[in-house]
Automatic annotation (TrEMBL):
Cellular compartment(s): Cytoplasm
Top-level class of the enzyme under EC nomenclature: transferase
Known EC number: 2.1.1.213
Residues annotated as domain Ribosomal RNA large subunit methyltransferase K/L-like methyltransferase: 150-262
Native source species: Candidatus Nanohalobium constans
One MF term in the entry's GO annotations: tRNA (guanine(10)-N2)-dimethyltransferase activity
Single GO BP term: tRNA methylation
GO cellular component: cytoplasm
Record's protein name: tRNA (Guanine10-N2)-dimethyltransferase
Classification of source organism: Archaea, Candidatus Nanohalarchaeota, Candidatus Nanohalobia, Candidatus Nanohalobiales, Candidatus Nanohalobiaceae
Keyword set includes Transmembrane: no
Domain of life: Archaea
Keywords, comma-separated and alphabetical: Cytoplasm, Methyltransferase, Transferase, tRNA processing
Amino acid sequence: MTYTYRLAGENLELAEAELEGFLKSQRIDEKPETRNRLAEIDSEPNQLKRLALTHEITQKIGETSNLDNFTPDWTPEDSFSVKCKILEGEADNQRIEEKLGEKLSTENNEVDLENPETEIYVYVLGGNKIIGKLVQDIDRGLFNKRSNEKRPFSSPVSLDPVLARVLVNLSKTPAGGKLLDPFCGTGGILIEAGLCGIQPLGTDTKKEMVKGTKENLEKYGIISHEISQKDAEKSLSKFGNVDAIVTDLPYGKASKVEGEIEEKFLDLIKDFDGKTVFMYDKPNLGDMKAEFEIYVHKNLTRYIYSLR
Ligand SMILES: C[S@@+](CC[C@H](N)C(=O)[O-])C[C@H]1O[C@@H](n2cnc3c(N)ncnc32)[C@H](O)[C@@H]1O
């Protein structure tokens, strides 16, 4: 069985890395094969809703260069719809949808565009058409429902839920693991970790952030957490064994003394042998180089570091 992931195009490199991190979190070592924005793997996935930079996942039912000669070895058993996505080259969506609809029609099924039991996707990649049935749709709207202003406690420092989820997935932490955000702020990263079944641990020097993070986590039903008012440099000694450190370092005014936070953070991760993923406003930190650049808006670029 092959599964096809249609990745979000806005930052394809990051979407591919998120998928790889996610697969590792599911203890899948297989490396996806990518063509354009499609990534294919044979391993059976779980927890697909963890992904933030994937549009949908389909189970492959065929691939053809010519739909006229395509003979499906599987047909839907009830109502179905066909959606065509052109990823490379030019094609007539509607014609392709109609043609594939005809090929998949039997006396036992019917096309229903409103409320189909089975959704079929056909991806056009130049001369090739890759056909699959929907396994999981990723609803980005659900991430937006958790945006900063919709939480009980909010602050301008808060991280966008999609980006926070990507950082969590890059950390490869499985459900049941422990993830530490030493500069937790409003808990943006910890909420996403908690929703993936990972235990969130956090520290912040500000009392209101600690209280706010707890409120935010509990709003989403994440009860098993440990959040403490502490300096980040004491966070590992407080929590002991953690699987990953994932954080968004303080910027500008929040970092108060330029350089001091960097030193503290470098010191914190120096002997840590788990995975470390962090975001910062500089492309280099110590002798580390950022792996991804995120354009947030005009004059605001962030960099993601993913270590080990
Ligand atoms: C960029 S914000 C983190 C935002 C967070 N990712 C969120 O989604 O809300 C950085 C946080 O680090 C905290 N902070 C600054 N210096 C700190 C230190 N030495 N130890 C722990 N927390 C610190 C600030 O209070 C601030 O809440």
